[in-house]
Amino acid sequence: MTYLLLDGIRASYGGTTVLDNIDLAVGKSEMHVLLGPSGCGKTTLLRSIAGLVRPDGGRIVLEGRSIGALPPKDRGIGMVFQHYALFPNMTVRQNLAFGLEQRRMEKRIIGHKVDAALDTVSLTDRADMRPHQLSGGQKQRVALARALVLEPKLMLLDEPLSALDAQIRKRLREELKRIQRETGLTSILVTHDQDEALSLGDRISVMNAGRIVQTGNGQDIYYRPADDFVARFIGDANIIEASRIEILARKAPGKTAIIQPHAIKIGTTSEDALNLRARVLEASVAGASVRYLMDVAGVPLKVRTHTSSEGQYLSAGSESSLSVRWKDIHFIPSVAVAEGNVNGYMPTAHSPEGVLRPNLQK
User: Fold this and answer.
1) Rounded to the nearest 10 degrees, what angle do helices 107-120 and 166-183 cross at?
2) Where do the ABC transporter domain residues begin and end (predicted)?
């Protein structure tokens, strides 16, 4: 069932189109992620839903009611920003109570709601502290609780974790997912971080140049990208013109193959699979995985495998067989590949013939 409907949302600034006829349906209790590079329009779309930006055209319908003409305060929407925007002279409890006090609620009711919100974000023991006494992660949880306490119909989150360091961001990501599941609150999160999108989103809309390029669950977006932009933005896929490998050209003439590095198996061949012979160009250990760059008849392939307890892996210059199941290869309409720059790699003046080196200008 559609809970939030965006129908033909358009916006432009100074003659530049920022949102180009955006259509989107978000289900009740869904965590929907808007994912894309800086400048693609995702924050403008979020602010349009909140009423902070007035789009040039289109409809915004929440719970069957058109809200496009309503001021932000009457839309029943909560918003959490990248920067916490907490009142520095107030305690955590006072920050949460402020919005309820503006609604002239009884003190007893305000107290109950604030206590419940503090418990939800696990900050009861920080209730009497002021923002300068809190860590960045704690401040962001206060900002989230301040929005939750107002019991919005829809929660909008504008890159709420981007200002935090990696470890805190990972912990808060898990906390945010728990809170959203427990409350059942329909939410839209904006991010440019693909890991964040894949871990949090029930569905993801990938945006580029003011348009939604593809909407689907994480598996759809990752394994079956709609085009080369999505394939390049999500994951670290091999993007190969089928004509570059003879067997691919026979299988899917005029198509481009998308192959995820971890789908390629080393040292095996099998039926119903693309079987290749490759030479190792580079090998590097990255935590629990080994990353290879391999050459297949002049075509570079990125391959990723798990490390073993013995730490054994193929060295540069060695050869091995590769296989990838046909069902793990996704084909899209052929895309233009710059001459001499295939799959993000290009020959260098110092490379042996047929050996490709990383294109550092990518």
Assistant:
1) 130
2) 4-234
User: Considering the chain, what is the average pLDDT of its residues?
Assistant: 88
Asked whether the beta carbons of 201 and 33 are under 8 A apart, the reply is: yes
Q: Is the pLDDT of residue 45 over 60?
A: yes
Beta-carbon count within 10 A of 295 CB: 20
Looking at per-residue pLDDT, the higher value among 244 and 361 belongs to 244
Q: How many CB atoms lie within 10 A of CB 52?
A: 14
Work out whether the CA dihedral 213, 216, 217, 221 comes out positive or negative: negative
φ, ψ of residue 346 in degrees (nearest 5) = -145, 155
User: What does 283-298 look like in DSSP terms, one character per residue?
Assistant: EEEETTEEEEEEEETT
| Overall fold of domain 237-358 | OB fold (Dihydrolipoamide Acetyltransferase, E2P) (2.40.50)
Angstrom distances, CA of residue 288 to CA of 32, 306, 312:
30, 6, 12
Task: Specify the CATH architecture of the domain 2-232.
Answer: 3-Layer(aba) Sandwich (3.40)
3-state percent breakdown (helix, strand, coil) of the chain, nearest 5: 30, 35, 35
Q: For residue range 273-318, what is the model confidence (pLDDT) as tens digits?
A: 999 999 999 999 877 889 999 999 899 999 999 876 555 688 899 9
